[in-house]
TrEMBL record:
It is an enzyme of class 6 (ligase). The lineage of its organism: Eukaryota, Fungi, Dikarya, Ascomycota, Saccharomycotina. One of its GO terms (biological process) is mitochondrial glycyl-tRNA aminoacylation. Homodimer. It comes from Kluyveromyces dobzhanskii CBS 2104. This is glycine--tRNA ligase.
Length: 663
């Protein structure tokens, strides 16, 4: 079945989240963690097929990015000291806005609440009741579902005026960009309270999402579970640069767990408190953000949702090539454009439906102040458009703040072909005068003076000329210290430089593996119109948890012998397979593997005993071909790992017709 045919077949049957969830639960793709103890919202365990699927996705990620792009992979600790996350800005700013119902004590995430209520109002009475059942479907555990079901009241439809509809649509298009106080104003203006009781909520306040802990037995050394893998990569920058022989551009990469104490983690795997992230930090010269492999991807056509389109209250994307997007400055630079295209290729390879993928640009107030540009790969699911990969140009922010804090240079030194004259402020110290005045603190004062920025040097030079002394704060010393013009002079000096020193900018693609996995579940889930009770998950063979189901026609020693031989060959080839020797019909055996996403089935029958041939069945089309064990396994290998189509991979095998797959 071609990709197009499959998309058509999927469209012919209505998607039901309930059916998908029932399959995922029954076949133990994943399940709420600690269920025996009632479960904890936002924590999930992956079962065997979920685990294998995740491992395969990570494997493709590693090949697609780390190997293909020659990235430097690191594995850094999850426990992170307070100092690091204070410097990065997470301690002060890594928060969401929450509001509390003073009567019930319930907590809501402010932006999600505004979004949910306005969407419900827009959808009217019918959908408003749909929201109630949605909210219920989002609950993590059965106990929670029951509790919510009791609580959710019917929301009455109110016909809205056209102008109000427009206002709501505009707000929803910009929902990610509001600050806490702005969300508070919206809640007052549009009378948004507890969606169940309608009661007023307290104004939004910031809630830091990091899990705090103490490192070591004294409890004195504060730390956090990391909320992203990026900081470890920044802190190892100098080692990575040296490993790369001092050359940029280069990228580091890391795959590992991150932790966020989400305010209300519903929506299954989409919003959890512990999740697998795969992140890349691409370090590039700020004056040259071209990418040498950009020509390879420039013709890829993508759906972009630019900032100004959202600002105008629209969600209609612009379809254009990456090359055009960069040339027109819609996307800030080539390297950012290159990664957007590579993210697209990766997502399509692992089973994302291209029709349900768009790249949304961050609004100006949604983006961190230092970021040059930022695009999210959003995947459409029954929960709406969900950010699954963030791709940001973070400028030189991270390296600069860590360098300033640690006084360790995090820079690239590049030999210049033609030396250049550089004029800059320099401080010259008369060191022998520092010891007598500052005693043991002398080195601290000296280091502080030598680390002054150009702006500070300029202003201190004026102060020194005017007052004959300067005063400044030195870390680890009480109050301010005074240094006079006998101890330090600050002058503008012109030097010939043979080396250019710069802090690289960082382009950061950041993947949430769980969100991608869930979106693929939805994008791949369907059933045949003639048999809607049986679900199929059409994972691409490359990432399917198991590649082959082996089914002997009957429980018979001769067939069992061939099954064992084929198993041994598959094992040797390292092709993941399962054997189903149960007595149920072939159709039933295939059906239960269709819902596990197993792309191929091998049937062993009595002809196999006489001529050694076996049958190969393809999951989506149910087409079958017949051939020798060696030829069939070669076809499986080619289609699964070499990206060969089913038609191409099986063209030399004989078509095989059998009765319909019913039981
Ligand atoms: N709570 C979560 N559960 C699962 N995945 C997450 C969660 N938070 C973030 N991610 C994933 O990590 C990626 C990068 O994180 P980033 O900080 O950009 O997300 P975010 O903007 O905070 O997401 P959101 O606004 O949806 O909370 C996201 O694109 C997403 O795939």
């Amino acid at each position: 079945m071609s990709v197009e045919e499959l998309q058509q077949a999927k469209k012919a049957v209505d998607f039901s989240r309930e059916s998908l969830e029932s399959v995922l639960k029954r076949r133990f793709f994943y399940a709420p963690a600690f269920e025996l103890y009632g479960g904890v919202s936002g924590l999930y365990d992956y079962g065997p097929p979920g685990c294998a699927f995740q491992a395969n996705i990570v494997d493709v990620w590693r090949k697609h990015f780390v190997l293909e792009e020659d990235m430097l992979e690191v594995d850094c600790t999850m426990l992170t000291p307070y100092e690091v996350l204070k410097t990065s800005g997470h301690v002060d700013k890594f928060s969401d806005w929450m509001c509390k119902d003073p009567k019930t004590g319930e907590i809501f995430r402010a932006d999600h609440l505004v979004e949910e209520v306005l969407e419900a109002r827009l959808k009217g009475d019918k959908e408003a009741r749909g929201l109630a059942s949605d909210a219920n479907a989002d609950a993590d555990t059965d106990a929670e579902k029951k509790k919510r079901k009791k609580k959710v009241k019917e929301i009455k439809a109110v016909k809205l005026e056209d102008a109000v509809v427009k206002e709501y649509e505009e707000i929803l298009a910009k929902i990610d960009g509001y600050s806490g106080p702005e969300l508070g104003e919206l809640m007052v203006k549009y009378e948004i309270g507890n969606p169940v009781s309608g009661d007023k909520l307290e104004p939004p306040r910031a809630f830091n999402l990091m899990f705090e802990t103490a490192i070591g037995p004294s409890g004195q050394y504060k730390g956090y579970l990391r909320p992203e893998t990026a900081q470890g990569q920044f802190l190892n920058f100098n080692k990575l640069l040296e490993f790369n022989n001092g050359k940029t551009p280069f990228a580091s990469a890391s795959i590992g767990k991150s932790f966020r104490n989400e305010i209300s983690p519903r929506s299954g795997l989409l919003r959890v408190r512990e999740f697998l992230m795969a992140e890349i930090e691409h370090f590039v010269d700020p004056t040259n953000k071209s990418h040498k492999r950009f020509p390879d991807v420039k013709d890829i056509k993508l759906r972009f949702l630019p900032r100004d389109v959202q600002q105008a209250g629209s969600t209609v994307p612009v379809e254009t090539t990456v090359g055009e997007a960069v040339a027109s400055k819609l996307v800030d630079n080539e390297t950012l454009g290159y990664f957007i295209a590579r993210i697209y290729q990766f997502l399509i390879k692992i089973g994302v439906d291209p029709e349900r993928l768009r790249f949304r640009q961050h609004m100006a107030n949604e983006m961190a102040h230092y970021a040059a540009d930022c695009w999210d790969a959003e995947l459409h699911t029954s929960y709406g458009w969900i950010e699954c990969v963030g791709c940001a140009d973070r400028s030189a922010y991270d390296l600069t703040v860590h360098a300033n804090k640690t006084k360790e240079k995090l820079v690239v030194r590049e030999a210049l072909e033609t030396p250049i004259e550089v004029t800059k402020w320099e401080a010259t110290l008369v060191k022998k005068l520092f010891g007598p005045k500052f005693r043991k603190d002398a080195p601290k004062v000296e280091a502080r003076l030598l680390a002054l920025t150009q702006e500070e040097l300029e202003s201190y030079s004026a102060e020194l000329k005017k007052d004959g002394k300067i005063t400044l704060k030195v870390e680890g010393m009480e109050g301010e210290v005074e240094v006079d013009d006998k101890m330090v002079s600050i002058e503008k000096v012109t030097n010939t430089e043979h080396i250019r020193e710069f802090t690289p900018n960082v382009i950061e693609p950041s993947f949430g593996i769980g969100r991608i996995i869930y979106a693929i579940f939805e994008h791949s889930f369907w059933s045949r119109p003639e048999d809607t009770a049986r679900a199929i998950i059409s994972f691409p063979p490359l990432v399917a948890p198991t590649k082959v189901l082996l089914v002997p026609l009957l429980n018979n020693p001769e067939l069992a012998k061939i099954t064992a031989q084929v198993s041994q060959t598959l094992r040797k080839e390292q092709i993941p397979f399962k054997v189903d020797e149960s007595g149920v019909s072939i159709g039933k055996r295939y059906a239960r593997n269709d819902e596990l996403g197993t792309p191929f089935g091998i049937t062993i029958d009595f002809d196999s005993v006489t001529d050694g041939s076996i049958t190969l069945r393809e999951r989506d089309s149910t087409k079958q071909v017949r051939g020798s064990v060696a030829d069939i396994i070669k076809a499986i290998r080619d289609v699964t790992y070499q990206g060969v189509s089913w038609e191409e991979g099986t063209k030399n095998l004989a078509p095989f017709n059998t009765q319909a797959e019913t039981d």
